[in-house]
Amino acid sequence: MTHPDGWSRTLSVEALARVEGEGAMTVRVHEGQVTDVQLRIYEPPRFFEALLRGRDWTEPPDITARICGICPIAYQMSACQALEDACGATIDEPLQALRRLLYCGEWISSHVLHVYLLHAPDFLGYDSAIEMARDHRAVVERGLRLREAGTDLLTLIGGRESHPVNVRVGGFYRTPTRRELHTLRGQLERARDDALETVRWTAGFDFPDFTQDVVMVALSEPDRYAIERGRLVSTAGLDIPVAEFSNHVTERHAPHSNALHAELDGGTTFAVGPLARFALNYDRLSPVAREAAEAAGVGPDCRNPFQSIVVRSVETLYAIDEALRLLDDYERPSRPFVPIEPRAATGHGCTEAPRGILYHRYTIAADGLLTDAVIVPPTSQNQRSIEEDLADFVQARVTLPDDELQWACEQAIRNYDPCISCATHFLDLTVERS
Amino acid sequence: MTTVVFGLGHPDRGDDAVGLLVADRVARARPHGISAVRAVEGSPLRLLSLWSADDRVVVVDALRADAQPGAIRRFDAHAQPLAGRPGGGSHDTSLCDAVELARALGRLPRTLVVYGVVGARFEVGEPMTPAVLDAVVPTAERVAAEAAVGPRVGAP
C-alpha cells in the first residue's frame, strides 16, 4: 500500500535484522508529519555495573569483556585504563604498543563483519549476506579472509578469539615473542591489499542524499589516529581529559528504552564512531589510508552516515597498516605487566571501540573492592542521534510504501553498526501511521 | 574417517551455554571416532575456517523453538537448509547464518549434523533451566553415537 500524502501511520519493525543484538524501533507518522521515533532496547540495564560492585579491583577486564562478543578488547582496554588511572600507574610503552596492536585486531574483525555481512547487502539490494554470497562469492570470500586476519591477531595476543583471557590490569599475563607475532605478517600484508580493494568496492555504492548535522565526539592524540587512549575532543570545540567525561556527558532515562540516552553539555545530541573519528583525526591516518580515502571521495567533512561503510573500510585499512607497523617495531617487552597496588581512588578510562568511545569509571575502596562502576557504551551515546536521523530520514520519504520505508529505516539504523548487546541486548522494529 | 565436534554458545547467557557443556562432556568421554572437540564462544562464522571440506562435523548449539526446554533436535544440513531468524542467538551471526553462508560459498564440510537443545533463558547472568541442564548428558551421548557409526544422513 502506498501513501501519496504520507498521511498517518506507524511503522513498526520487530526483530530488526543485521544489527548486533536485538531490539525494536517504532516510527509514528501523523497527518504526514513524523511525530515520534523510538529506538527501544529491552535488556535489563546496568547488569554488569551492579555485578561489579563488591568485586575485586582486578576483575573488571575479564568480567566486562563478557558484555560483548564483538568488542571485548574495547571493554578490557577501557577497564584497564580506568583501574590503572585509579591506582596512579603508568604502563610501559612497549606494553601500550602491544595493547594497540591487539586493539587493531578487534577493529579489523569488527569492521569487516559489519561492512561485508551486515551493511553491504543494503547497498546491493540483498536481504542478507547469504543471498549476496550466491552472486558475489569472491567478494564475500575476501571479507571472510580479511576478518580472519583480525581474529587471528586477536587470538594470538588475546589468547582466544572471543572473550580474550590474556589481558590484565598492568599489561598481559604473557607477551608473545617477536617470532610468534611475525607468523602473521604475510597474512596481514595480503589483508592490506584486500582492505584497499574493500575501500574501492564500497566507494562505488550508491548513497542516499542525506547528511547529519550533529556534534561529533572522539578521542584524539597529537601524532596518531587515536584508538586506545587520548583526549576527548568534539567538532564543537570540546577538548578535555577523559576524567572530565561525566562533567560533559550526562545520561537520562528514556521511558521507551532500557538503555540510557546520553547528551552532551546540557542537552546536545552527539555522535561517536567512525565518522566522528574521521572528522576529528583524518590528518593522522597513515598515508596509505589517507590516499585511499581521498581516492574514495571521503574526507573529514563527510557527514553522510550512509557513507560510514566507506569510512569503516578506510579504518580497516588503517588498522591493518598500523598493525604491520607495530609488528615490525615489536620487541618483546622486558616484563609482561607492570605490578600495581590498589588504593582508594576513582579512575577513568576511555578508548575507541569500533563503534565509538567506550567510557569506564571505577571507584576502589581501601580494601581493594569496587564500590562503584559506570560503563557508557557507544551505542547508548549514539541512540539519540540515531532517532533524530530517523526522524529526518523518514520525513523526506514519508510517502513511501510501508515495506520500502521499513527497509530504509533499517538501513539507516545499520549505518551506526549498533551493538545492542553492548547498550543492552535484544532489538525488534514498528512504523505507525495513524 | 573421524568426526569433529563443535560446541557453540555463551557461558554467561543462561541456556546458551548448553553447546559448550555438551562439548565439554564429549571431550571428557573421549568416545571412539571423534578426532577433535572444540568450544566456540565467539562468532559461528569461525566454523568456516575451522572445518574443512573432507570433515565429518557435528555442531551443538542452543535452540530457540516452540518446544519444551531441553528438547533435543537433530538437523542434517545437507538434507535441508537451517532456517533461523536473522541474527538470532547471542553470537554476532547465528549458526544458521554461518551454515547457510557456507552453503552459498560451497564451503560446507562433507557431512554436517547440527544438534539443537531447546532453551528458555538467554539473558546475561541468568542460570540455566534445569531441563536444559538435564539434556546435556543425553545430547553428548547422541553426539558420541553419531561419531561411532557416522552421521545418519537424512535421519530425523
* Alpha carbon gap, first and last residue of chain B: 22 Å
**The number of domains of chain A:** 1
Order of helices and strands of chain A: EEEHHHHHHEEHHEEEHEEEHHHEEEHHHE
What's the CATH H-level homologous superfamily of chain A? Cytochrome-c3 Hydrogenase, chain B
Strand order of the largest sheet of chain B: 2-1-3-5-4
- Global Rg of chain A: 21 Å
Furnish the topology, listing elements before pairings.
The complex is a heterodimer of chains A (434) and B (156).
Chain A: E1 9-14, E2 24-30, E3 33-40, H1 47-52, H2 60-64, H3 72-87, H4 93-124, H5 129-135, H6 137-158, E4 167-168, E5 171-172, H7 178-182, H8 185-203, E6 215-220, E7 231-234, E8 239-240, H9 245-248, E9 249-253, E10 260-264, E11 270-271, H10 274-281, H11 287-296, H12 308-329, E12 345-353, E13 356-364, E14 370-376, H13 378-395, H14 402-414, H15 420-423, E15 428-433
Parallel strand pairs in A: 2-15, 6-11
Antiparallel strand pairs in A: 1-2, 1-15, 2-3, 4-5, 6-7, 7-8, 9-10, 12-13, 13-14
Helix pairs in contact in A: 3-4, 4-5, 4-6, 4-12, 5-6, 6-8, 8-11, 8-12, 11-12, 13-14
Chain B: E1 3-8, H1 18-29, E2 34-40, H2 47-50, E3 56-63, E4 72-76, H3 95-104, E5 111-118, H4 130-134, H5 136-149
Parallel strand pairs in B: 1-2, 1-3, 3-5
Antiparallel strand pairs in B: 4-5
Helix pairs in contact in B: 1-5
Give a structural overview.
The complex is a heterodimer of chains A (434) and B (156). Chain A is an alpha+beta fold and 434 residues long. Chain A has one domain (7-433): Cytochrome-c3 Hydrogenase, chain B. Chain A contains 15 helices and 15 strands. In chain A, strands 1, 2, 3 and 15 form a four-stranded mixed β-sheet that branches. In chain A, strands 8-7-6-11 form a four-stranded mixed β-sheet. Chain A has a three-stranded antiparallel β-sheet with strand order 12-13-14. In chain A, strand 7 (231-234) and strand 8 (239-240) form a beta hairpin. Chain A is globular. Residues 15-21 and 421-429 of chain A have low confidence and may be disordered. Chain B has 156 residues and is α/β, with parallel strands linked by helices. The relative contact order of chain B is 0.26. Chain B is globular, with a radius of gyration of 14 Å. Chain B has a five-stranded mixed β-sheet with strand order 2-1-3-5-4. Helices cover 29% and strands 22% of the residues of chain B. The interface between A and B is medium-sized, with 37 and 28 residues.
